[in-house]
Amino acid sequence: MLQRPRRNRKSAVIRDMIQENRLSPSNLIFPLFIVEGENQKTEVASMPGIYRYSIDMLLKEVESCMNLGLKAFDLFPSVEESLKDKYATESYREGSLYLRAIEAVKTNFPEACVITDVAMDPYNSDGHDGIVEDGEILNDETLVVLGKMALAHAKAGADIIAPSDMMDGRIGYIRQILDENGFTHVSLMSYTAKYASAFYGPFRDALGSAPKKGDKKTYQMNFANAKEALIEAQLDYQEGADFLMVKPGLPYLDIVKSLADNFDLPIAVYNVSGEYAMVKAAIQNGWLEEERAIMETLMSFRRAGATAILTYHAKEVLEKGWLK
Ligand code: PBG
């Protein structure tokens, strides 16, 4: 045998020497849930170790992450039912919980990278990512709301705006509004290929943002399709996206790889709430080894071609010293 691949695996030094992919703190983005109030830190039942924070507690959490070298955060609001309406007006109201949270983080930690979520669902009395009219999700009317929301986020200090709604044309529409208002420096991380997935369940529990009626299949993608992701990516590219994101992560590594192979923009992946819940539940049962299962998961995203990984594991991998 001339080729014996095992020779390159014979010692830790050689294995490290030929390792193709690495994971560093700079690859990680930590999603954080926010609630109204003071001194609030309540665990999400289906996401052990993940909490909803009031703004004062959020700042403490951000500080402890920053000290660990984790500097990018994606914020999500839990909105009181009484503030929700058909047009998600709370999403751009001056003084809203979300806008105050963005401002507070950027004022206290100017060097933190704040990513904001643009979608109607947490503020919409119908629980959808668009305006609902006679059971239909209106596309172009929804863009107007998304534009107002994105502009409010930019004014509050967002570094990166991440539209997660899957309406057609929203990247171009938001880019234009940002540019017209002097926010040419604010980036767009598009949820390019976001699938209609069962793995968002714990997230919707955390925020109380599940659709009141129906499902999201007329705007989120069919999980049987791969080529459609290339169409979405091409549109986002043409419309001015700075990052292309795939969501969920683990069941869609083929899509991550396909976008990474076909586009020169940085690729982000969202290791979503249900993936986190699944791994944590198995660990809690003693069925999987914690560090090994989580590191293997995160490295698979790097191997597939993602540079930015949104993951609820972000803080623990640093806290537990697994990247050392
Ligand atoms: C909403 C949004 C969702 C997630 C991020 N933004 C849920 C949904 O589309 O219903 C899911 C994230 C997760 O599950 O961790 N636009």
From TrEMBL:
Keywords: Heme biosynthesis, Lyase, Magnesium, Metal-binding, Porphyrin biosynthesis. It holds the Pfam family ALAD. It catalyses: 2 5-aminolevulinate = porphobilinogen + 2 H2O + H(+). Its EC number is 4.2.1.24. The keyword Magnesium applies. Belongs to the ALAD family. Homooctamer. This is Delta-aminolevulinic acid dehydratase. It comes from Rhinopithecimicrobium faecis.
